[in-house]
Amino acid sequence: ELPQRAKCNNTYQGSGPTYRDKCRPFCPAVLRDHEMEEFLKREYSLSKPYQGVGSSGSSHWELMGDAMVTTEQVRLTPDMQSRQGAVWSRMPCHLKDWEMQVHFKIHGQGKKNLNGDGLAIWYTKERMQKGPVFGNMDNFTGLGVFVDTYPNEEKHIEAQKKRYTPRTQRIFPFVLAMVGNGTISYDHERDGRPTELGGCNAMVRNLKHDTFLFIRYIRRRLTVMIDIDGQHEWRDCLDIPGVRLPQGYYFGASAITGDLSDNHDIISLKLYQLTVLRSPKEEQEESEDEITIPSVDNMDLLRMGDTEEGMSGIAIFFTVLFSMLGCIFLIVIGLVVYSHWNESRRKRFY
């Protein structure tokens, strides 16, 4: 059963025939003074009984690598070392506004910090390309939302203490989002920090209840929420305006294991078309500003925040030291200037 309530100030009653009687996530801050309708798009959705997936050319979804279909899930990777798998939509999506609800499960025999590596949900120009980014290619073009279960950068305790304070230190698993334009590489050593749009911690491994990920793209605003506590309530993860994603890209999900492993399962991917009322002026502005390359309007500000977060203790020490020396230097100069001025003033009276 899908989560029925959002962690917002209100809820939205779905108008589509499939979910007419269910409350759906709705944040008035995102869609203030605008009407919205939603419709389940089955051609872009993946759910039980997964008819034809991986074996029929008529299926809308295609398997890659070590992924396999069972009666209960699409298993992207088994709990074995050095595996990677994916499932990709065969049809490009030309929807302007949409939301994806992901029902997933990550579980395995490994204990805390002895599991890996995580899974990803994609909306990209490329499809069916193996690679190191959670089983997909690096330098991708489009959107990736990652459920990262292994702390590559923070695995060394000493390095962690030097770089991060308790406020900025992350708890894994961690959910984050990234937009790529075909030239931006995902930084494994830093767990994607330099290019992330934002994220949140999400303790999703080996849970007995269902876990969900919610991705909404509407009015060039990207919202990600999670429901992992078994309360059927969405929890905010990130909300970024100014995200520009072209139409005609492909949805997919992938996962990878290395020396450490987990079962990475997709139970369902459900895509909803969002129909939003726009004024003629808005329609004209959007048609004139056609998006051809994925980008984020405020990415420079996000990177500045990452730089500040990643400042090491040594860098902070020298910054404070040089700031103090600069202040002392200015005080000395001020005293010298004042002394000369005072001496000149006294001479005028003799």
TrEMBL record:
Name under which the protein is recorded: Lectin, mannose-binding 2-like a
Record Pfam families: Lectin_leg-like (PF03388)
Chain's gene name: lman2la
A GO-annotated cellular component: endoplasmic reticulum membrane
Cellular compartment(s): Endomembrane system; Golgi apparatus membrane
Domain L-type lectin-like, first and last residues per copy: 38-274
Organism: Echeneis naucrates
Membrane topology: Single-pass type I membrane protein; Single-pass membrane protein
InterPro entries: ConA-like_dom_sf (IPR013320), Intracellular_Lectin-GPT (IPR051136), Lectin_leg (IPR005052)
Primary residence: membrane
